[in-house]
Amino acid sequence: MPAKIPDQLKEIANHINQGGERSETVRTLLSWFEAERRGYWKVHEIRKALRKVKLKTEPDFEDAWIDAPIAFLIKPKKEKALPSDESELGSDTEPKTDDDTTGAPIPVKHANGAQNRIKIGVLAAANKPPRCVSPDAEISEAITLMLQHDFSQLPVTTSERDVKGIISWRSLGSRLALGRQCKKVRECMEAPSEIRSDASLFEAIQQIVEHECVLVRDTTRKLTGIITTEDLSRQFAQLGEPFLLLGQIENHVRDLIANKFTKAELAAVRDPADSSREIEDVSDLTFGEYVRLLQNPKQWTTFAIQIDRKTFTDELRKVGDIRNDVMHFHPDGIGPEDLTMLRKFARFLSELEKKLA
Questions:
Q1: Buried-most residue among 93, 102, 285, 299 (CB within 10 A)?
Q2: Rg of the Cα atoms in the chain
Q3: 3-class secondary-structure state, position 344
Q4: Per-residue pLDDT reduced to its tens digit, 306-355
């Protein structure tokens, strides 16, 4: 299927090829493709379109904060492909989807590759310059700022690149516990933990947890943000709910199917590309294979549930599409509409299972 190239991207390509310059935010780029988040397949679509017009973005649109500006540049002919750019490896065909009636499982290698590519810089907190205090400021000023803004710490700086330390409730408390009276901020500050905005988010987690917060610098060493354990907790809470809901949905579907089909019937819906996989019971099927099993009118009769087959399996397919994006982890998460859909469908399956018990 030919890559869709938005008119805005064509106009930018013409402008760049005539020697011009152009920058837009990641959010704007996504809007040209009728998207709000960088889902796995949407990223693939955008990369394919960029390749068609021979452009790239700097920084890469998948690594940047969603409201950060990205510059459009001419792409060198032999530039190395990015890990998530499958088709850059020599094929213009669309990738096979997980649940498009094939039941093929999500490649683990791709999921891990996506995780390894996620940078600290995609987090909003890494792009919000923190409130700072001078090392010569009075302690009362630092305390007032932390109380007023509900901060646990403040970077101590003399400029946006010259960081002297960090003052926190912990550093203040440790001095007071030792009977030391601090009048100036410099007397109570500690050495900060720092990280670059292009560092891997997953590799940085332990550093953030160990130090409770890290200061983020961009490639020019400018201080761009501060990430705390609270920011991490909020981020992973946002990403964790879809995982839990998908687990609930899959468990409910598995329970509804259990003991209703023979091994031969289950094996018949196995992905042909994975014919060597043993199918002993429903737990050996992929989510896509659940859908294929229930789409068959004959199997649906065996399923013996008095609800509409097409409506039910259409919803299951939507869940499978959402599952693809969730399993290819990205901090953008899923949209509120998709999250609402998962909540409602999980609740529906739970009620259905109770009535059939």
A1: 285
A2: 26
A3: helix
A4: 889 999 999 999 999 888 888 777 777 788 889 999 999 999 999 988 88
